[in-house]
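Hey team,

Filing this mostly as a record. A colleague (T.K.) asked me to run one chain through the structure pipeline before their review meeting, and I want the input and output archived in the tracker in case anyone asks later how it was produced. No errors, nothing strange. Just documentation.

Input sequence:
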Amino acid sequence: MTPAARVQTAIELLDVVIAAARAKGAPADRILADWFKANRFAGSKDRRAIRELVFAAIRACGPVPDTGRAAMLRLAEVDTSIVPLFDGSNYGAAPVAEGEAVAEGGVAPAWLADRLAASDIAGPEAEALLGRAPLDLRVNSLKTDRATLKLPEAAQSTDAPHGLRLAPGTPVEQWDAYRDGLIEVQDTGSQIACLAVAAQPGETVIDLCAGGGGKTLALAASMDNLGRLIASDTDRNRLSRLMPRAERAGATNIEARLLNPQREADALEDLLGTTDAVLVDAPCSGTGTWRRNPEARWRLDEAELDRLVKIQAYLLDLAAKLVRPGGRVIYVTCSLLDEEGAGQFDGFLSRHPGWQPAAMDLPAGLARGKGTRLTPFHDGTDGFFIACAGRP
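Output structure:
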């Protein structure tokens, strides 16, 4: 493919991404993967170039663009080397017309940028949300340790005690160390959030929103496979991925439990009031993960944010019922909005008299309210709010 044809293809894919964002359909990654699978004529260099153009254009636009062409013209304002590729050549993009519409720049749609600014995420802090994330690994301490692990490529240690960092796109899933369960792909911020649980061997711990189990596996390693670790979720597909991952990692103390939405307590009834720690890694807006999913900011609206805030409060209240006297609830969200972070945690404490914020020994982050916040700008991680509360 010529460079001009790559630009036109990226424009057409952006049209699909924009439509999917408006309809809350497939994410950009999946859209591109499906297109590449169906269009084998595009070689590896073409695929890489098209992917970079699509995601660069997404990052360059604040609000949802009207069209893929408007998004690419916005990118051309940022990267002037693209302008000559609107050359009207065969399979290429048509020349730019005078006064043609260009998408608006910015960090996010105006309402969302305002919410972030109100949470002290503005300027460089906000701009860092749209950078490109590195590839972080967690060394599996059940099988090896960071000091002696040998990998095909040199990796940099991160603030997490078992964390390593590589360049984006490093093919770690092809490595023996990955196939043998010596490493897991996990952002350093997510690893630090697991440290807040302070899970100990012999404890009973619940990962209430386990999903595919990335944090569950880290907790199993912290517990040295001793004690009970219950991984629960309402998403059958995501939860089904956990046990094969656990087998590869050598994690043997994990129990998976599928929950029914709004009836979660039924499946956890035997654990009510008995658990040492409950991790609530709640569904959220994902504002801290835009480096990986930049079009996510086009999918969020105020009604969806309100819905997520209510779910977070509901899950925190459920977690409080599960914890024994003297136990703890750890609240984690990959959002940088205070209504999902510090404000949400304050609401929990106000609803549960006697519960107190508990100190956390974390290697990164800054205080935010009664918890800790990690940001891409300050910590080089995904964005997280992390807090811990102890039951009297």
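Quick notes for T.K.: The first helix runs from residue 3 to 23. The mean pLDDT is 96.
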